[in-house]
Amino acid sequence: MAEDVKPTRKNLMEIEDRIELSERGHNTLEKKRDGLIMEFMDILDQAQTVRDDLEESYELAQKRLNMARAMEGDVAVRGAAAALKEHPEISISSKNIMGVVVPQIESMRVRKRLDQRGYGVLGTNSRIDEAAAAYEQLLEDIILAAEVETAMKKLLKEIETTKRRVNALEFKLLPDLYENKDFIEQKLEEQEREEIFRLKKIKAKKERQEAASSE
Amino acid sequence: MTRLRPDAGAKGGGNPAYVNARIRSRRASLLDESDYRKLVRMGPDAISRYLEETEYEREMNELGARYRGVDLIEYALNANLSRHFQDLLDWSDGQLYDQLVRYLRKFDTWNIKTILRGIYTDTPRDEIEADLISAGEFTKRDLDRLLEAQSIDDVIERLSGTIYYDPLIDAYDEYEELNLLVPLENAVDRAMFEHMISGIDVETGPASRVLERHQQWTGSPAALFREFLAAEIDLLNVRNALRIAKSGSELDPSSYFIEGGRLFSKRELGLLTGDLDGLVATIRDSVYGEKLDDALAELEDAESLLEVEQAIDRALVEYGDLLGSRYPVSVCPIIAYVLAKELEVQNVIAIARGREAGLSEEEIREELVMP
After folding, report:
1. Are B19 and B92 within 8 A, CB to CB?
2. Is the pTM of this model over 0.95?
3. CA distances in angstroms from A44 to A36, A50, A103, listed in the order given
4. Where would a tag sit more exposed on chain A, N or C end, judged by fewer CB atoms within 10 A?
5. Which domain holds residue A162?
6. How near does any CA of chain A get to the CA of B200, in Å?
7. DSSP A89
8. B295-325, pLDDT tens digit by residue?
9. Contact A67 B180 (CB under 8 A)
10. CB neighbours (10 Å) of residue A37?
């Protein structure tokens, strides 16, 4: 509230400094918000493609699994699945997009050759191979989707935070500071006018006293 | 632990006339095309009800209290198949028994692999037992003995005296080294396939053309049976060689190659490993080329092996037809019946599982190999 501020020149200077700082911050944050939105739009396109691929891979994997279960039986599919001993591994590092730390997920040993899947070649057939390959592809797509969608969520969160900061500066902090500045300036001008008026009064009084003493 | 048949090794040809007479009515009760047309339109419950009015009635009623839905269909069909094939072995004598048991050992290998996998994955005994199909040489008692085994080594020890024991012992070190069942499973499969054909001693030509000239086939029934087994091994080798080549794996051919076929030697297959185009060209030039040509074109275009596998299955079904019609009083029609029955069980389970999984009629129809 402007009435809470003491209308002193020192305060005015402080407020002017704060206005200057806030305007600079506002500009920077606006630029950051716009940059983040541009990055977000790029990632959004990528995320949409990844999500479409993921849905396609999931449908294909389910279809292949259903087909393998239907034609080879549950026992054969369960047996082939249980044979896998060397499980995929993922490693997570991070990268920085305009101050936002997003994960980078790398997967290893997801896609396997026939001899790496653990089941025997003689007792299985290509329906099992195709179901396994489709699930390997699905797992790769899930890992990619996890990376892209986590980056997207983090960017979105950062955009929201930045937008709130920009709005707070633009609609709350800066208007309050300007109001305070105007208030102090008005008060100071008023004080100045009162001072001049008082000085004039004193001067007139002095002149009247001098005139009376000379008479 | 094998079924003891005092006359199993006899030189005589056995009793094919008797067994053929006994299976005539069973062959007649196999499902036909109109049954399949109805089944692909039904859901699992309707399929169950339909099967209750067919050959499978007894097993559907026996197992109805324990299982439901598609599980009931699968277990009932497998139980029916076991009963029928056990009957075949019970009725057969002499050389006929010997020939039949060679072919039906594939169910023993299934059972051994299921027990090994069950123990490997700590599956409860009841669940392992439910998945066994007692349609081979092993009796119920033999299977119970195997099910009592507490470890992989124990299973192998209990197989002492069978054709599987030595190959399993040989593969055991690799199993221990890798901690994977693959070497043991391959050893069991290889033992079955190689014994299937090795003892059938008949004169055959250097390069059989049974598929091309089956109309003019003049060999003996045993030779025709041997040709069928050789073709089955060839087609298995073709299928696995294509899988390996397509996956880009450099697996040693000795780990999947089965001796007894005519198309490849192990060395030839070794040279073609990793060369999909060379392999396809070799298969195209072979006796199987005509049957697999369209499917091989599909493999080149779409890189999918499913068409090839279906073409292989169809080629084997054609062999079955040939076996069934050539020598009415021999092992051949009996093997043809075994193939037809197996195919029927496979197809009905596929329809039920496919419908349960939400596959369309069209998708299921495409996957079926019809007799």
Report:
1. yes
2. no
3. 12, 10, 16
4. C
5. 2-208
6. 22
7. E
8. 777 777 766 788 788 888 888 877 777 777 7
9. no
10. 16
